[in-house]
């Protein structure tokens, strides 16, 4: 079974858009008239805003790399569709994981915090696990592109292991962050934030861009003008 590439992109873009929008639902402050001032609330809820920024850029980075990868795909088959669904499964879990870790971190770090260390550690482990799943899902899609005649331009064999390391290297860091979260949640939080910063500058291999004349303007097949 083959599917028009534009449908894969459109569906995925819709999921990315919903997930990145849901992140903002956790950015709330109490209504006027409460004992806490607005400035105090913003100060004590800083983990919520930091978690929002990390997750926002993570979803955005995956969307950018997903777009770059998919534009080079010549044939969309059933296997790719399910691998893409695995990736999106974890993408839509990011808002929930973000809200969970942000709320527990904020409560834990607040003066006289009432939440136990273990609860915060578990929340951080969940946060890292969602990013790990997303990384593995994207890595599986990338691995699919390395085999068969799936791409307009196949990545040279001598560059594949380096590309694999770049694509799934974050998964190794997420595993480390999950382990560290069992002992110190804040350190794990910082590690995940650094991964986001790294992937802002990391790029999809340039060899994956479709050559001129191999892709249509709507990115739906191999018979139109340049897609790059």
Defining key terms:
disordered C terminus, single chain, 228 residues, mainly alpha
Plain-language structure description:
This protein is mostly helical and 228 residues long. Helices cover 65% and strands 0% of the residues. Helix 1 packs parallel to helix 4 (78-91) and helix 6 (117-145) packs antiparallel against helix 7 (160-181). The protein is elongated. The two termini are 26 Å apart. The relative contact order is 0.14.
Helix share of residues?
Answer: 55-70%
Q: Given the C-alpha coordinates, what overall shape results?
A: elongated
Major β-sheet annotation = none
User: Using DSSP, what is the number of strands?
Assistant: 0
CATH topology: I/LWEQ domain
Task: Specify the CATH architecture.
Answer: Up-down Bundle
Low-pLDDT sequence parts: 210-228
Spatial extent as radius of gyration: 20 Å
What is the count of DSSP helices, taking H or I runs of 4+ residues? 8
| Oligomer designation | single chain
Q: Termini, distance in Å?
A: 26 Å
